[in-house]
Amino acid sequence: MAIQRNQTRAVAIGNVVVGDGHPIAVQSMTATKTQDIDATVAQAEAYREAGAGVVRIAVDSDKDAAALAEIRKQTTANLAVDLQENFRLAEKVAPYVDKIRYNPGHLYHHQRDKPWQDKVRFIIKQAQQHDCAIRIGVNCGSVDPDKKAKYDPSDSITPMLESALEHCDFVDSLGFHRYVVSLKDSDPQQVIEGNRRFARQRPEIPLHLGVTEAGMPPEGIIKTRIAFEQLIGQGIGDTVRVSLTLPNDRKPEEIAAGREIIEDIYAGRVRTVVKLNEKSLNIISCPSCSRVENEAFIDLAQSVKEMTEYAKDHDITIAVMGCRVNGPGETDDADLGLWCGPAKVNLKRGTEALGAFGYDEILPRLRQELDAIIATKC
Fold it and tell me: Taking the model in full, what pTM does it have?
């Protein structure tokens, strides 16, 4: 397939360069506990050996930051750090990473009285001092609340787009241009539309592509492939991540899936005729990361998939999330949502909380609510 890449600017991330016609880099995120240094190093190295251009690690505390310093000594992977909700940790992690990712929607959780511009200015200062790239990562489930309030709830793209563009303009005003942007959603069609609109307005900025909570293979790979084929095929996208719900020892499969999709697109082996069946059950599940507080989440996601097979021909969405950071918000748009804590699974019907249930109690209750929804649709 003859693909004319968007002429984005070059952004160096360690020894990898994205944008400006460089090969599309595939990356992933460690799912181990960051403070488990041996396990995190092993997974980072497994990603690197599988062909990952960048490996992202979540840091949410001083102890995580201290662990990252040791991890840096033991892996040669290009490291990105996910600041989660605490922008102040940028100062402690910047010396050890090649890229810092921040989410505009998460800047409101700490020091709420401080303007977001001051927080971004602080992050950018650390990046400048320590030779780091930046990713401005906007997610559908954690959009800037001020932007979300301006638009109809059915319009999830415009608030994301407006937030991303606003942050790009501000970071540009600081004289910093070594950044990429991501606009992610669990719906591949939303990912396609959001990234197309952004690329039309800021064609020079490299884009990191991904479908959040794509779920388990093979469905999760198909969802991701749909988005990547239509974007990369039009020259949009400079680095990608395939987000799959997998146990830790299988996480490098994300890299293999990403590389295969890119190779297929360039070879013309596209499957754009494959469409998500809008009249079938849709299970969304996050790819797991160090935020997951109980690894039983992985088994639960698989059990939900198996248990709900009887409802496969119903237009219902079930979201299974592994943590309290993104779980509450990113289950709001699902008919039924589960977000997992250390000992309990929180169940929601739309935005309504139905209670917290033990891991051994949740499936019967989920089925009860699923049956109730099916009954109302029949």
Answer: 0.79
Tokens for 327? Answer: 């779980």
Burial class (CB in 10 A: 0-12, 13-18, 19+), 357: middle
- Provide, rounded to the nearest whole percent, the portion of the chain with pLDDT above 70: 94
Residue 115: its pLDDT value, please? 95
Residues 207-245 have pLDDT tens digits of 999 998 888 898 899 899 999 998 999 999 999 999 999
Rounded Cα–Cα distance for residues 336 and 366 (Å): 8
User: From the CA atom positions of the chain, what is the Rg in Å?
Assistant: 20
pLDDT tops 50 at residue 179: yes
Sheet containing strand 317-321, strands side by side: 282-285, 317-321, 336-340, 344-349, 352-358
Q: CA–CA separation, 288 vs 352, rounded Å?
A: 24
37-50 and 253-267 helices, crossing angle to 10°: 20
Distance separating alpha carbons of residues 362 and 378, to the nearest angstrom: 24
341/30 Cα distance (integer angstroms): 19
